[in-house]
Write a structure and sequence with these properties.
single chain; three-stranded antiparallel beta sheet; mainly alpha; two-stranded antiparallel sheet
Length: about 290
Amino acid sequence: MENVAIRGCVGVVLASLIAGSSFRRNSVNLSGAFAGFLVMAATITASYRFGALLLVFFFTSSKLTKRGAEKKREIDAHYKEGGQRDWLQVLINSSLATALALGVAFLTDWNDSCLDSEKAPLVTCLIGGILGHYACCNGDTWSSEVGVLSSSQPRLITTLKHAPRGTNGGVTISGLVAAAAGGAVIGLTFVVAGLFTASCEGQLASKQLLAFPIGAFAGLFGSVIDSVLGATVQYSGFCAVRKKVVGKPGPTVKKISGQNILSNNGVNFVSVLLTTLGTSVVCLYLF
């Protein structure tokens, strides 16, 4: 348990520094910084590899969120400088993976493990879920942040008709490519970090490389699910007064697509959950 204590100390120190820095840079608000601290400290304590996935997701997504700020401000009716994610957004993007990471740590006596469904099917399912979770979150964020800056007009994923920028469920080729790339980065991080934290030998070691294409698939799959949900159960309308796409009906709003059933947070949660479950099954089958 000595290693756990060391990881715990490292987790608390890193989480404190990153949460404080993120709050000062407006990446998160106060509640988001506190939630981020708890999630990051717990994840790193569970495993350095899982902590690496969280950190790569956080830093790359935060960087892309701030890219093209002026254009996003013109398009997004709910634009916030720096992102300013709150506690709910932080937990939607990390709480499930954190719970799975702690579950893996408990089952493996706080040691990192290889993806191996023959010897440890439950652990493989949980690790696959963590991989899918962060690949989905990273892919969806990359897709949204890159897609909105695309020179091509988005198309509604359910009809393939052109839609105004900022419409829920609108997709572009560059956005879909970014989703796969975002997931692939998580898969690559999983593989590289595992070289230092997990002891995989022989054929099993080479099979771990499958995490890279699995991550790319999960990133794209999660983004597509998010877009389908956004186009169907999340409302989009164009406000004649604000001249922007908004997420709620109103007297000055003309409907574009979707029903006012789920909020953006709800759509994100469902897409993350489905991708997490799907990737768990894929890893159980492939490994």
